[in-house]
């Protein structure tokens, strides 16, 4: 029996992507697999329906768990619908993992448009806020957990990532407030800042090798994180019983690149 057998986890940005070697190639899908191996019922959301359906098919076939999928814009009605369907299908919500984020990375502050800025804020900060707010009554019943995703782009002010960094630092602030407000309810809320090898990075390396070399640096660990084993497994533990006293913290999973005072 797994750690999450009989429990329900919502993962945003949980669509399937694969690397050239066939292994999991997106952080969201790595998280899906890690929870599936622990027996969780999964509700996965995202903007790409094909990737969501591919994830559902693989998770149910390979790990014997039941998954539900949702797509659409991150707005109040859509998020409430996801929460309602999760309760209708599984009867409970034990954890919410807010991984979804889109942005116009590489565009400087001077050149950023409002549409580009809004893309990051709506897909990241607003979506995280809404999923937390709408899931709160159900998380209170299960004394559940939330893991939100931020980034070294916000921690260290990466060049060309103004809207992405703003969204991610907003998520960190929101997380700390939730930890303060919801601690009495038995809900712990933490943040992960990951660095992992993904299909997006693989494609970037192939298409723009010079830009890749200039902007993507190997961490001191000597390898990029595995989306399931080195990111997803940590998220599972943060939602498990051993880490309930940990609340409002930022965990950098960057192989030594995320060091800060």
In short:
By secondary structure, the protein is α/β, with parallel strands linked by helices.
The percent range for helix content is: 40-55%
- The number of helical segments is 9
Shape estimate? globular
Radius of gyration: 17 Å
* Strand order across the largest sheet: 3-2-1-4-5-6-7
Overall pLDDT, averaged? 91
Element pattern in H and E: EHEHEHEHEHHEHHHE
Q: Report the sheet with the most strands, covering strand number, pairing sense and barrel closure.
A: 7 strands, parallel
Low-confidence stretches: none
What kind of assembly state do the chains in view correspond to?
A: single chain
Report the span from N to C terminus.
40 Å
Structural class, from helix and strand content? alpha/beta
Describe this structure in words.
Strands 3-2-1-4-5-6-7 form a seven-stranded parallel β-sheet, with helices on both faces. Helix 1 crosses helix 9 (about 225-240), helix 4 (about 115-140) packs parallel to helix 6 (about 160-180) and helix 7 packs across helix 8. Helix 4 (about 115-140) links the parallel strand 4 (about 95-100) and strand 5 (about 145-150). The radius of gyration is 17 Å and the shape is globular. About 45% of the residues lie in helices and about 15% in strands. It has about 260 residues and is of the alpha/beta class. The longest helix has 29 residues, at about 115-140.
């Amino acid at each position: 029996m797994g750690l999450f057998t009989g429990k329900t986890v919502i993962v945003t940005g949980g669509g399937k992507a694969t690397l050239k070697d066939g292994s999991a190639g997106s952080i969201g899908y790595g998280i899906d697999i890690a929870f599936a191996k622990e027996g969780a019922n999964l509700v996965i959301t995202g903007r790409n329906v094909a990737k969501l359906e591919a994830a559902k098919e693989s998770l149910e076939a390979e790990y014997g768990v039941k998954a539900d999928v949702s797509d659409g814009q991150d707005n109040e009605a859509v998020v409430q619908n996801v929460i309602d369907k999760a309760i209708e299908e599984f009867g409970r919500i034990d954890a919410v993992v807010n991984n979804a984020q889109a942005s116009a990375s590489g565009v400087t502050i001077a050149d950023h448009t409002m549409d580009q800025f809004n893309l990051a804020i709506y897909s990241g900060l607003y979506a995280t806020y809404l999923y937390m707010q709408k899931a709160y009554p159900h998380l209170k019943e299960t004394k559940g957990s939330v893991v939100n995703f931020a980034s070294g782009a916000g921690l260290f002010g990466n060049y060309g990532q103004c809207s992405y960094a703003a969204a991610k630092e907003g998520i960190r602030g929101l997380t700390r407030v939730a930890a303060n407000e919801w601690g009495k309810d038995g809900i712990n809320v933490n943040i992960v800042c990951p660095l992992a090898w993904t299909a997006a990075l693989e494609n970037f390396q192939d298409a723009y090798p010079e830009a890749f070399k200039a902007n993507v640096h190997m961490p001191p660990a000597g390898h990029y994180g595995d989306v399931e084993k080195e990111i997803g497994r940590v998220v599972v533990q943060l939602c498990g019983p051993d880490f309930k006293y940990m609340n409002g913290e930022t965990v950098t999973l960057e192989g030594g690149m995320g060091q800060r005072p």
